[in-house]
């Protein structure tokens, strides 16, 4: 039997949940089904010896902020793929195999269903059957604090140097952690995403196709569309330093705040990059109770426009003048929301003529600009 060698890397799965009882089982099962979860102690002796099952560690269940538990006696180990040669030190059975440690940190945000009871049940199961530490933080204030607040508290309670974000209503594909970690290891200043499928599979077809079909270059370019971040939040994984570079972490404004978009832009402002594993590693659930529906379009538009103004339109060559590629409703809306100084720099509206299938430009005179206002 090959020797198992533990890396110093710990993956913290970060979850926030509000009234998510109906999805907890599916989410947790997808985590324990991650490839090669090994329920044994690290064996640093000769190959002839059989690895031992490690002792149980009790993870704390806490209110709001837990005391730190620094014990590393027991973890779940995820074996890396053989093709990740920079991580796995050899594919031969006689060579050591490198494994990862995994923990789960959940913020329960004042649910009024049986979410907390189910989480406690899973905490016992993960500890006793899989040796996966699970920390539960509970908001007992009687008022939900919001996704951003919950993520910040869960991250503060976690010990991992890599953060894997997961929504309770979604499900990981078996190789998600393994493959995203391999890419994150190479790009420690990146947010790592992945392609995804939808539950049900006919939900938001146009958005899903757009997100999954983006090239690696487009991930950094198409950041101002109405679709939000070019990699969806439930697929994010990153090194902890990516999070630490953003002062205050995620926005804690609460319900209706697109905390993922705000964090995404701040990350780019810090010269962070966006990478994606071009495989389907998440089942992304669509339902009417999703937090995304609490965010108004005008809020997203305001954040997007502010970032566009300060990072693009006020710099060369855009400050010398630019065109708006949309002669319809969205283009006119963008024009109306521009400050007067920027409106003066709009040279034309551009669009594609559906009949002749070619680009058309509509130059703007001063009177036309006045009418659009």
UniProtKB/TrEMBL annotation:
Residues 102-245 form the Glycosyltransferase 2-like domain. It holds the Pfam family Glycos_transf_2. InterPro entries: Glyco_trans_2-like, Nucleotide-diphossugar_trans. It comes from the Eukaryota. This is UDP-GlcNAc:betaGal beta-1,3-N-acetylglucosaminyltransferase-like protein 1 isoform X2. It comes from Musca domestica.
């Amino acid at each position: 039997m090959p020797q198992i060698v533990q890396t110093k890397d710990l993956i913290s799965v970060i979850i926030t949940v509000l009234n998510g009882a109906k999805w907890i089982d599916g989410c947790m099962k997808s985590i324990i089904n991650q490839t090669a979860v090994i329920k044994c102690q690290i064996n640093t002796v000769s190959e002839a010896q059989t690895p031992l099952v490690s002792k149980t560690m009790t993870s704390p269940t806490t209110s709001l902020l837990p005391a730190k538990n620094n014990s590393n006696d027991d973890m779940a180990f995820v074996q890396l793929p053989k093709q990740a040669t920079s991580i796995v030190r050899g594919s031969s059975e006689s060579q050591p195999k490198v494994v990862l440690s995994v923990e789960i940190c959940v913020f329960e945000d004042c649910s009024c269903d049986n979410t907390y009871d189910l989480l406690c049940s899973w905490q016992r199961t993960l500890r006793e059957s899989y040796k996966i530490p699970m920390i539960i933080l509970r908001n007992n204030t009687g008022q939900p604090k919001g996704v951003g607040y919950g993520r910040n508290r869960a991250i503060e309670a976690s010990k991992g140097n890599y953060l894997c974000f997961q929504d309770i209503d979604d499900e990981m594909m078996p190789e998600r952690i393994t493959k995203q970690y391999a890419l994150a290891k190479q790009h420690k200043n990146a947010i790592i995403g992945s392609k995804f499928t939808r539950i049900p599979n006919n939900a938001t077809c146009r958005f899903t196709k757009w997100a999954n079909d983006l090239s690696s270059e487009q991930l950094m370019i198409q950041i101002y569309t109405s679709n939000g971040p070019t990699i969806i939040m439930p697929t994010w994984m990153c090194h902890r330093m990516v999070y630490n570079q953003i002062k205050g972490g995620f926005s804690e404004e609460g319900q209706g705040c697109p905390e993922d978009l705000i964090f995404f832009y701040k990350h780019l402002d810090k010269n962070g990059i966006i990478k994606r594993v071009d495989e389907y590693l998440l089942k992304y659930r669509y339902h009417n109770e999703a937090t995304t529906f609490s965010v108004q379009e005008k809020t997203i538009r305001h954040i997007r426009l502010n970032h566009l103004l300060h990072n693009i339109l006020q710099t060369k060559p855009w400050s010398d003048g630019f065109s708006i590629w949309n002669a319809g409703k969205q283009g006119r809306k963008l024009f109306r929301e521009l400050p007067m100084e920027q409106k003066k720099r709009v040279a034309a509206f551009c669009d594609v003529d559906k009949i002749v299938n070619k680009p058309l430009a509509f130059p703007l005179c001063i009177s036309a600009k006045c009418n659009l206002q």
